[in-house]
Amino acid sequence: MKVRVFVSLKSGVLDPQGRAVHHALEGLGFTGVEDVRVGRLIELDVADSTSDEALDEMCRKLLANMVIENYRIEKVA
Amino acid sequence: MKVRVFVSLKSGVLDPQGRAVHHALEGLGFTGVEDVRVGRLIELDVADSTSDEALDEMCRKLLANMVIENYRIEKVA
């Protein structure tokens, strides 16, 4: 089973990487960019028997830092 | 307009970060994890007038390394 986990910074948390990307886009001449946030996309290939609870626990224990990040789990197939 | 860009390593490209996460999940006792790949999720807030071509160019010029990475653009709203 393919699972995608999207990890993004909670709103209000400073994102220096996003700021750098924003600045770089402007430097390249792209206009109209108002905000950039950079997160992680983790693609897991897990056994079909893996429960939702186990996936949730993986996120909480390792994949996301729950203090500053949110995560969303999407099952692909 | 909110736009999400998903950047992931092309298949065949070694992913040491994914391997480390895989190893750590096993170390934490999670079984059944077969593969882990780590990519980036970039959330952009751009002007509604931004063209698809401009978004594509941003990805090619800055957000993704076209030699080793693929990208996918998703417009949210």
What does this structure look like?
Chains A, B: Belongs to the PurS family. The structure is a homodimer of 77-residue chains. With 77 residues, chain A is α+β, with helices and mostly antiparallel strands. Chain A has one domain (2-75): Mth169, Chain: A (2-Layer Sandwich), CATH 3.30.1280. In chain A, 31% of the residues lie in helices and 38% in strands. Chain A has helices at residues 16-27, 52-63; strands spanning 2-9, 33-46, 69-75. The radius of gyration of chain A is 16 Å and the shape is elongated. The mean pLDDT of chain A is 96. The A-B interface holds A 6-8, 18, 21, 24-25, 28, 30-47, 49-50, 54, 57-58, 61-63 and B 6-8, 18, 21, 24-25, 28, 30-47, 49-50, 54, 57-58, 61-63. Strand 2 (33-46) of chain A pairs antiparallel with strand 2 (33-46) of chain B, so a sheet runs across the interface.
For this entry, give a set of tags.
homodimer; 77 residues; alpha+beta; Mth169, Chain: A; three-stranded antiparallel beta sheet; 31% helix; 38% strand; ligase (chains A, B)
SSE topology:
The structure is a homodimer of 77-residue chains.
Chain A: E1 2-9, H1 16-27, E2 33-46, H2 52-63, E3 69-75
Compact summary:
The structure is a homodimer of 77-residue chains. The first copy, chain A, is of the alpha+beta class and 77 residues long.
